[in-house]
Design brief:
The complex is a heterodimer of chains A (581) and B (462). Chain A is α+β, with helices and mostly antiparallel strands and 581 residues long. Chain A contains 16 helices and 26 strands. In chain A, the strands form 5 sheets. In chain A, strands 8, 18, 19, 20, 21, 22, 23, 24, 25 and 26 form a 10-stranded mixed beta sheet that branches. A 6-stranded antiparallel beta barrel of chain A has the order 1-2-5-4-3-6. In chain A, helix 4 (261-270) links the parallel strand 20 and strand 21. Chain A is globular. In chain A, 53% of the residues are buried. Chain B is an alpha/beta fold. Chain B is built from 14 helices and 22 strands. Chain B has helices at 132-137, 156-166, 187-200, 223-237, 249-262, 276-284, 313-321, 330-334, 351-354, 364-388, 395-412, 422-433, 446-452, 454-461, and strands spanning 4-5, 8-12, 15-19, 28-33, 39-48, 51-56, 68-75, 77-80, 88-90, 106-109, 120-121, 126-128, 140-141, 148-150, 168-169, 176-185, 206-212, 241-247, 288-290, 296-304, 324-328, 341-348. The longest helix of chain B is centred in the C-terminal third of the chain and has 25 residues, at 364-388. The chains are: A alpha+beta (581), B alpha/beta (462).
């Protein structure tokens, strides 16, 4: 590596100015005697402005600066799975072994273990012509993951002169090429550069979350983007954890970006113990965690989002379904703001840099369903939490995010205070995929799925209108038919929308059960309408057993069977009313 | 031999600019000797080849071009010793109780280094504060950060002292200590703090830092960091369970804003610097537990919300960092209820990690959510009663309304020196819940009702 040497000429918190080097934008540099890692973020004349990924306390003017000539990159290869990294892909467990319980400056460790040997099985032979992105073999990294080894997208096409099965460490050559370039199990890729693909495809398959309110009313597609804004305490993190645990993806990349250390500890200790409900393996076998908590250096927080999405793209390129959870993108935006203010840039709204929305859209655009270089289909679904200041959705980060994303899951403080979880507000949230995905739901779940969903939403809207009257005159003065709508809305809210993430059954509701449950509520409603028309009073309906039983359905192991019983009872009871009337 | 420089060019608010004649380190501590011989401390905020920017902790009054500056070549460090327990120190860590100087066992950087998230262990185990609304309804857990949001003129300092007096952990041999740091408090308050700590004997297990309102604002920026460094020493070097109480963080944040303004930084919301979140997080995140270490740091920052506005940047950013919040309510205070803790908007995110059969009692979680539900309903009914009058309520609704009133009167209200055990609190909750129709207790399962409901106990006895 060519290393040009320069010196520090100014230190202002995490931003350092250096002279005497002539780097390219976003080159990585090492600063000072402690070799702090940084990245060039502005070049003006012969001065380079650097954001430093570590604490700069004690750094002096005049200390040496070394340009590596390389942009900030991540290591991609076998060994990523179950990795726990900081924002610039330093493995936290290795750092703990090196430095003890606290993080200190100037540590350098490789992201992928160099000692571990992987059994490589080629899928092409000698003499094969290979092009970038094409797979040459695989490593069985976990029981369920065949980690495809592909030719890195930034290499030139070549002919294989030698390749064999064997045990290799990540940095050993596994294959000889006629142009002499080395091909290893791992390669590096700059984090700010999206990995190439042939074309983007329209997302058309739902990303099933097992959360009733999301799947039924605001579904997200595989390869889609969603934002989860909400004030503090509304359960953003719980939803993100829930999505990481239950979602149907091959790989989950979880980026803890500037959030709480204790919550990260929860993720780090709980995930390896939890079971992946799709394979039965520990969750950590499909998860990569990036933990850059709020007290870790702010520049590394800025990088953590890119580190996460680059790793996600790497797995996407193997033709896998990847989901990325970023908690929280507001902290990332704040990191940008902090760096921007240290660079004395002209601020945009609320002190955020003017390029906030273009950075956000660049990030979200890296999601998607694509045709990979070797003509497979891969997806990245991105779900970003947003922490609006003061719970006010009009602030710049929420607003800039809304312009890009397709699904909006708005969390609500009022619902939180009523202990309604998940506190997704059904009036404000939306999904632009509902129509695209309707086909899939009709084919794979039930013909009337879209109708059912809009019926329920309609009832909830009616409730909202009726509530305004109720607040003035009380619910007793409403006619029975309207009281019934209020009651059905309550059933939808309490029996269907509310979901207990900590309950063993309720935590994940299969898509079929979601349908059956809502369908039963609708049947109940329709029968009640019939009964009221026949002269039965609202209070009679309210007190029947079937209604009480419906409330328990979501906790039942065998929900389907249970609901069948409930419906039989309902029919009997309805019969009785009608006779009475 | 360290050089003294006489190159100060500009002085502005708490900041001093000087020509760079020596290459100094970022964050380095400096001594400024005034022309009258007195000494002030400062810290390097920005340094380049030409210029050095220093923030002066004791304020810049009296500094002129003649003042000399000496760089100490190290970042801000604080002396630490077990003997700090039982002492009252000023905001910079020097004794003000008339006692002898404290011989240091160790010196540590006040900024500290972030805990590796991988080395953290999840907070659990109950801390008993003796206050029912916290223990019963928003349980505090070891290693948690749980702030108290209050307002001007509300008795948050009395609550803070009560916590300092009564908080304890169960079932372990480790020592328990309190680190109490007050920032920007008045002389009067300081007096009553000192009195209270000395009279009640709470001082025997506490380290008290007092930064007064007339002390320079900039010193407030360092006080909580010294307090947390002390806490880290007690917790992770001496294996103690440490409860840190910081009051009032609003004064700290205002000092931060003052520095930002003096540096002519681009302000964020309401003039507070854009990095306030990071700055607060760097402190609050020093709380926690570490795998393989016996001690723990539990943090209770107290802040007064300007104009009781919870969306103000200080409470807002704080709540995004901490694991919940306890709200002191002006409404309850006006009703004459002490401690006026409003449980509805309060929340302890880690409560479930600290309660249950092994830690408090098996019925704790259910009793608490039942109280929450009934109290919320009762409060709604109270609004309705204001319009339609009590007579319009059904018997059931009347029972709920009475529950809410009695809850405030007996559960929320308690004496300043009354330390209730968790058993007291839960029994009291049952006594109140027992006045509700039993079929209303939907959040509690039948076995638990059979075991703990006062009426069902009587049946067993009778």
């Amino acid at each position: 590596m060519m290393a040009a040497k320069g010196e520090v000429i100014r230190v202002s918190g995490p931003v350092v100015t250096a002279g005497g080097i002539s780097p390219r934008m976003y080159d990585v540099v090492f600063i000072g005697m402690e070799r702090l890692m940084g990245e060039v973020i502005r070049i003006s004349g012969n001065k380079s402005v650097i954001q430093v990924y570590e604490d700069t306390t004690g750094l002096r003017v005049g200390e040496p600066v070394e340009d590596t000539g390389m942009p900030l990159s991540v290591e991609l290869g076998p060994g990523l799975i179950s990795g726990i990294y900081d924002g610039i892909q330093r493995p936290l467990p290795a750092l703990k072994d090196m430095q003890g319980s606290n993080l200190h400056k100037g540590a350098f460790t490789e992201a992928l273990d160099r000692k571990k040997k992987w059994k490589f099985v080629p899928c092409i032979g000698k003499g094969a012509r290979i092009s970038p992105g094409q797979r040459i073999g695989s490593v069985a990294e976990t029981k369920y993951l065949e980690h495809a080894i592909c030719m890195p997208p930034n290499m030139r096409p070549a002919t294989v002169t030698d390749i064999a099965e064997g045990e290799f460490s990540v940095d050993e050559g596994i294959c000889k090429l006629d142009n002499g370039e080395p091909l290893k199990l791992m390669h590096i890729w700059p984090i700010r550069q999206p990995r190439p693909y042939i074309e983007k495809l329209m997302p058309n398959i739902p990303f099933i979350t097992g959360q009733r309110v999301l799947d039924m009313f605001f579904p997200i597609a595989k390869g889609g983007t969603a934002a989860i804004p909400g004030g503090f305490g509304t359960g953003k993190t719980v939803i993100q954890h829930q999505l990481a645990k239950c979602s149907d993806s091959d790989i989950v990349v979880y980026v803890g970006c500037g959030e709480r250390g204790n919550e990260m500890a929860e993720v780090l200790t709980a995930f390896p113990k939890l079971e992946d409900m799709h394979t039965g393996e520990p969750l950590s076998q499909r998860t990569i965690l990036i933990a850059n908590t709020s007290n870790m250096p702010v520049a590394a927080r800025e990088a953590s989002i890119y580190t996460g999405i680059t790793i996600a793209e790497y797995f996407r390129d193997m033709g896998l379904g990847v989901s990325l959870m970023a908690d929280s993108t507001s902290r990332w935006a704040e990191a940008m703001r902090e760096i921007s203010s240290r660079m004395e840039e002209m601020p945009g709204e609320e002190g955020y840099p003017a390029y906030l929305s273009s950075e956000l859209s660049e990030f979200y655009e890296r999601a998607g369903r694509v045709r990979t270089l070797e003509d497979r289909e891969g997806t990245i679904t991105v779900m970003g939490a947003v922490s609006p200041q003061g719970g006010d959705f009009s602030e710049p980060v929420t607003q800039s995010t809304l312009r890009i994303i397709k699904v909006f899951w708005a969390l609500d403080t009022k619902l939180r205070e009523k202990r309604h979880y998940p506190a997704v507000n059904w009036l404000n949230s939306y999904s632009l995929y509902s129509d695209v995905l309707a086909d899939w739901f009709e084919k794979n779940v039930a013909k009337d799925w879209p109708h059912l969903s809009s019926w329920a939403m309609n009832i909830l809207h009616r409730e909202e209108e009726l509530q305004q009257i109720v607040q003035l005159v009380g619910s007793d003065s409403l006619p029975d038919s309207e009281r019934l709508i209020l009651d059905t809305a309550r059933m939808i809210r309490e029996f269907f929308l509310q979901q207990d993430s900590f309950h063993k059954v309720d935590s994940y509701c299969p898509i079929k059960n979601q349908y059956t449950l809502l369908r039963c509520i609708r049947d109940f409603h329709d029968r009640s309408v019939g009964a009221i028309n026949a002269g039965v009073t609202f209070n009679q309906i309210r007190n029947i057993n079937a209604r009480k039983d419906l409330s328990k359905a979501k906790y039942m192991d065998d929900m389907d069977g249970f609901l069948k019983g409930v419906m039989v009872d309902l029919r009997k009871e309805c019969g009785l009313w009608e006779e009475e009337a | 031999m360290k050089m003294e420089h006489r190159t100060i060019t500009d002085i502005s608010g708490p900041l001093v600019f000087m020509e760079a004649t020596e290459q100094v380190g970022y964050g380095e501590v400096v001594l400024i000797r005034l022309s009258d011989g007195s000494i002030k401390h400062g810290q390097v905020l920005d340094c380049s080849k030409e210029m050095i920017l220093i923030q002066v902790f004791e304020g810049t009054s009296g500094i002129d071009h003649e003042a000399t500056v000496k760089f100490l070549g190290e970042s801000f460090r604080v002396n630490l010793s077990r003997d700090m327990i039982g002492r009252i120190l000023n905001g910079a860590g020097n004794p003000i109780d008339g006692g002898p100087a404290i011989p240091p066992d160790m010196k540590k950087d006040v900024i500290g280094s972030p805990i590796n998230p991988y080395a953290r262990s999840r907070p659990k185990q109950f801390i008993e504060t003796g206050i029912s609304t916290i223990d019963g309804m928003n349980t505090l857990v070891r290693g948690q950060k749980l702030p108290i949001f209050s307002g001007n003129g509300l008795p948050h300092n009395r609550v803070a002292l009560q916590l300092a007096r009564h908080a304890k952990v169960y079932g372990e041999v480790q020592e328990f200590a309190v680190v109490f740091a007050a920032m920007g408090i008045t002389n009067e308050e300081a007096h009553s703090f000192i009195n209270d700590f000395e009279m009640t004997g709470a001082l025997n297990r506490a380290v008290v830092f007092l930064n007064l309102a007339n002390d320079p604002a900039i010193e407030r920026l360092i006080t909580p960091k010294i307090a947390l460094t002390t806490a880290e020493y007690l917790a992770f070097d001496l294996d103690m369970h440490v409860l840190v109480i910081l009051t009032d963080m609003t004064n700290y944040c205002d000092a931060l804003r003052q520095i930002g303004a003096a540096r002519e930084e681009v302000p964020g919301r309401r003039g507070y610097p854009g990095y306030m979140y990071t700055d607060l997080a760097m402190m609050y995140e020093r709380a926690g537990r570490i795998r393989g270490k016996k001690g723990s740091i539990t943090l209770i920052p107290i802040l007064s919300m300007p104009d009781d506005d919870i969306t103000h940047p200080i409470p807002d950013l704080t709540a995004y960092i901490t694991e919940g919040q306890i709200i002191i309510s002006r409404g309850l205070h006006r009703k004459g209820i002490y401690p006026p803790i409003d449980i509805s908007p309060s929340l302890s995110r880690l409560m479930n990690a600290g309660i249950g059969a092994d830690m408090t009692r098996e019925d704790h979680g259910q009793v608490s959510s039942q109280c929450y539900a009934a109290y919320a309903e009762g409060k709604e009914l109270a609004n309705l009663v204001a319009i339609v009058g009590r007579s319009a309520l059904s018997d059931r609704d009347l029972a709920v309304l009475n529950f809410a009133e009695e809850f405030e009167d007996r559960m929320v209200r308690q004496g300043e020196n009354e330390a209730r055990t968790i058993t007291d609190t839960l029994d009291l909750a049952w006594e109140l819940l027992a006045k509700l129709p039993v079929e209303m207790l939907t959040k509690i399962d039948p076995q638990t009702i059979a075991k703990y409901h006062p009426n069902s106990k009587n049946e067993v006895k009778g």
